[in-house]
Amino acid sequence: MDLIELEKKVVPEIFDIIEMRYNILRTIYYNQPIGRRGLAYELNIGERTIRTEVSILKEYGLLNIESMGMYVTEEGKNVIKELGKVMHRIKGISDLEKALEELLKVDKVLITPGNSDDNGLVLKDMGKTTSIYLKKLIDKNYIIGVTGGTTMAHVAEEMPVGKVADDVLITPARGGLGKDVETQSNSIAAKLAKKLDANYRLLHIPDNIDKATLDAILNISDIKEVIKLIDDMNLLVFGIGRADTMAERRQLPKERIEGLIHRGAVAEAFGHYFDIDGNEIWESLTVGLSLEAFQNIDNVIGVAGGEGKAEAIMAIASLRKNMTIITDEGAARKILKIAKKATK
């Protein structure tokens, strides 16, 4: 029996303290400088408790408290990194990853502790996990496709700065969707390229236009070039979307959305809507990566977290087996729960 398993049996309460201090440190790190009141609000913990814990962490040399607020020290940053590994073990994440790989029948599953539906920091952690894993896969002359969305914006934000290989090019895998510029695939491609000292291309087309307009735009030479890059990409990183959420973002008619949900649509990818078993329900007219091309890409990473994305992840994971799914603990445990219920 290793030390962590022994401590679980003898002093299980110690892990609640470890998790609380880990959450305090990373909340400060992601929001610094931050005051005690702001920290208490972010964590939904009483100010008295925060005051006590902050004093302890400062005494250990993990925090600095200045007039502008609190900062994590270099030692504190190292502790956050190491505590992340400890939390991984405490929560049995490795076993959870193996269980999900077997259930979803995919090559690899990486899980971030926590539930991003309840805690925004988990989404940041998932972005960091994805960015680090992505960086390890990049090779010379790679064409990397990225989609838009909040999750992918966090991947770009958390990407460590530094060139990995020569002649890397990053391109949007889809046209633009929604009004938020920061979560557009163009913005994410440009930000990732800057972090990785890579080249990039932009796809200046909305993802939901009529066929006549699309046919005309696709004859433009610059657009043809980007579409060719999309077809030739070596690596794709994409956010997995819920069917209802993506249908609303595409501003589909209310009757169409209700029809999709009624027919069991739970996920959307590349303009296609799927039920939980991966059966296609409907295809919208979109710009960029096709479902057929998706099957031919060498390296594919799908990213989504939160219990609300569980069914969507199950649907998209069924589309191809040689892919990596990066998610969080909330979604992972919900997927196992859904699968267990289905076998009864």
How does this structure look, described?
The chain has 344 residues and is an alpha/beta fold. The chain folds into two domains: 3-90, Orthogonal Bundle (Arc Repressor Mutant, subunit A); 93-342, Rossmann fold (3-Layer(aba) Sandwich). The protein has 16 helices and 13 strands. The strands form three sheets. Strands 3-13-12-7-4-5-6 form a seven-stranded parallel β-sheet, sandwiched between helices. It has a four-stranded antiparallel β-sheet with strand order 8-9-10-11, sandwiched between helices. Helix 8 (150-158) links the parallel strand 4 (143-146) and strand 5. The two termini are 34 Å apart. The mean pLDDT is 90.
Number of domains: 2
CATH class term of the largest domain: Alpha Beta
**E-strand count:** 13
Radius of gyration: 22 Å
Entry summary:
It is built from 16 helices and 13 strands. The chain has helices spanning 3-10, 13-31, 36-43, 47-59, 74-90, 93-104, 120-137, 150-158, 185-196, 211-217, 221-231, 243-249, 254-262, 291-294, 310-317, 329-342, and strands spanning 63-66, 69-72, 108-112, 143-146, 169-172, 199-200, 235-239, 241-242, 267-269, 272-274, 280-283, 299-303, 324-328.
